[in-house]
Amino acid sequence: MEFKAGKKSSIGTNKFAINLFFENSTRTKSSFQVAEMKLGMNEIEFEAKTSSTTKGESLYDTVKTEESIGADIVVIRHSEDNYYEDLVNNHDLKIHIINGGDGTGQHPSQSLLDLMTIYEHFGKFEGLKVGIIGDLSHSRVAHSNAEILTRLGAKMYFGGLNAWYTPEFAEIGPHMSVDELCQEMDVVMLLRVQHERLSAEENHNFSKADYFKNYGLDQRRVALMKPETMIMHPAPVNRGAEIADDVVECDKSYIFPQMANGVFMRMAMIEAVLEGDKASEEVADQKRQTVLR
User: What domains, with CATH codes, occur in the chain?
Assistant: First the structure.
């Protein structure tokens, strides 16, 4: 929150960052780019469709190449769950790796900015009721937020198609109707339907109108909410599917404030990584001075 309050930092001066996004992204990629620039970093341009990965280059070789030419930080979004485990466990990489989203696994930076937004509003997590509605099984945001909010003492609830309410979510919290969630929750978090991860049959049988009628958030459901209830969404938003057009920017909506907080949170993440480098360099300098004496 210090960056949001106006803190300035040039810790990234003369440092290089590269954002390896192998899946489409607007908010996360742009947010990291702005965060890097605000910290004084230089960005190395990368486009997956014109990179050597199209020629068969492995993710490791791509990351090692960027390390070799001088990149200090790499932010990666990849379709493979836990892609980072191979990079971290099986290779001696010195470049810092930040997970920008892995498959249907985790989305740590989104989760952190969501926590920041919730804490700004309530000043706590303990005892809050948080409902996540939508395509749970395919959502890395749902996985990250359900885990961390539970650890912080929030009570989790879920809504949407029963088929997406998998056993891992059933172990965390109950499934409820959207009307029930709107009446009881402190935070209502919506998710888009990830058509790119559904089967051809699932997409063929999907009806946007039916989905919105059964699970979408409209003004009638907003009226059921408590005065202090927050509406959140990691975006991209599919208006008229999981949320009505006139709800996206209603008084209870924190969708765009979430995006603004994303820059500050990602600045903090990058600063933490670079501060670690700085601390290591200072220790090394002290050791060298000791030897010289």
Answer: 16-103+263-289 (3.40.50.1370), 108-253 (3.40.50.1370)
